[in-house]
Amino acid sequence: MKRVTIKDIAREAGVSPGAVSFALNDRPGVSESTRERIKQVAVELGWTRSAAAAALSGKRVGSFGLTLQRGVGDDHAEAFIMRFMAGMQRELDKNHLSIVLQVVPSIEAEERTLRTWWAERRVDGVVLLRPTIDDSRARVLTEIGMPGVTIGGPVAEKISTVGVEEVGTTQLLVDHFAARGHQRIAYVTGPPELQYVSWRAEAFKARARHHGMIPQVVHVVTGDELTGMDASERLVRSGNAPTALLYDNELMTVGGVTACTDAGLVVGSDVCIASYEDSPALRMMRPGISALRRHTEQIGTLAARALVDLLEDGEPTSQIGPFPELVVRGSSGEILG
Rounded to whole angstroms, how far apart are CA atoms 325 and 291? Predict the structure, then answer.
C-alpha cells in the first residue's frame, strides 16, 4: 500500500505542500480553519508521521525505547513485561506515541543499543528495567544526553525514577510470617547487584531480626523454577531448615513448592510459602500460594508519564507506585500460636 505523502494531502485539500507542512507541524503560516481542514484530510487519508523524516529535521520521533535483557529459557519476567508495556502504551496513546522494544542478550548489547538509538534518532528517550547498584547504562545516558526513566531505583541524578516501596512490602511479608509464629525464615532471590534485590535483602534481614527470627538469604543467578528448586532443596534438607520461605517471583516459587513436596513436606503445614509476584499458576495450586498482587500496569503508566514530563520540562522526577496487596492463601498455613 502506497504511503500517504504531504503532496497527497495538499492535492486533496486544495492547498500547497508548504501549507500542509505548516499545518501538520503546528507552525504559523496558515489560518486556524485551514489548519483544521488539512489535519482532517490527513486523518481521512490515513497519513502518519515519518519517524525518519522527523529525525532528519531534528524533531522528536514520537517513540520511546524499552530494552529487555533475555537469555535462552529466561522467561520469568514475561508476565511483568506484558502488563508493564500495556500500561505504558495506554498512557502513550494519549500523546500519539509508541514503544520501540529491543531484546538484547547482555548489558553490553543494551548499551550499544542505547547509543545506536540516540545516534540514529530512533527514540526520544528510554525506560531502563532492573537497574543495578552501579548501573553502567545510566552512565551511557548521562554521557550521550539521552532522557531516561528507571524502574526499580534511582541510578543517576538526571534520570527520572519510578519505583515500588520495596522496604515496606518486604516488611509486610516478614510480618505476615512473624505473626504466625515462625522463627526460621529464608528468602530466595536474584543477584545481589540488582538494586531492588539489595533493598529487599537488607529489609528482610532487619525485619526478621526485629521479630527475633533467624533469617537466611539465598542469591541465585537466574530467577527460574530450576534455580528456585535447587536453592530450596538445600534449605529444606539442611540441619536448621526454615519453616517459612519467600521467593522473588512465581517461577522460583513453583520450584520451591516442588522441592518441598519432594522432601516430604506439606506446604501450608510443615513449611509455609509466599511470593513477591502473583500469577494464575500460584492461584490454582493446592494449596494456593500467598503472594503480593502488584499494580504493574500502573507502574508502566507512571513510567510513560514520567518520560513525557521529562522531555517537556527537562526536570527529572522520582515517584513511588501503588503499594501492593498481600493476598493470603493456604500456603501461609495457620497461626501457630
Answer: 8
Number of domains in the chain: 3
> Are residue 133 and residue 83 in the same domain, yes or no?
yes
Q: What's the grid cell of residue 309?
A: 514530563
Q: Under a CB-based contact definition with an 8 Å cutoff, are residues 292 and 279 in contact?
A: no
Q: Which domain holds residue 22?
A: 6-48
Query: Could you tell me how far CA 126 lies from the centroid of its own chain?
Result: 12
Look up the pTM and report it: 0.80
pLDDT per residue as tens digits for the range 90-146: 988 887 889 999 999 888 999 999 999 998 889 999 999 989 888 999 999 999 999
Q: Is residue 328 part of a domain?
A: no
Dihedral sign for Cα atoms in the order 243, 183, 334, 217: negative
Q: How many CB atoms lie within 10 A of CB 314?
A: 9
Residue 2 identity: K
Query: Tell me, what DSSP letter sits at residue 9?
Result: H
If asked whether residues 78 and 182 sit together in one domain, one would say no
Q: In terms of residues, how long is the chain?
A: 337
Q: Are residues 18 and 39 in the same domain?
A: yes
